[in-house]
């Protein structure tokens, strides 16, 4: 490993760990809002989700950002990795918007599980469209 790669990983890994912590806090807050889970379970779920997000970040995100930063040929994310990204993105969007269900007219009239499911599907479709849209700078479509 050369010095440039080492410097990159020293910069990227704290970013991955901070992002994992942020996503874990959002997940735990969402579980508390949606399910009303107790504190002991929340700590366990928070720690487990932090570890899972760190593994995905180190395995998928850090090498991809390294290739982008160093100008190497960009590889596409695997189908499995893309599905995980869509599910995580849709879950985060859903959890952040759950407090607003009562303020949205047609969602407040639906049962809570149906409203949460509809929000998840809407966010999953949005994340799917944005993650699969191929955009390359300097090239017109």
Automatic annotation (TrEMBL):
Keywords: Membrane, Transmembrane, Transmembrane helix. The chain crosses the membrane at residues 12-35, 41-62, 82-101, 113-135. This is MFS transporter. It comes from Pseudomonas fluorescens NCIMB 11764.
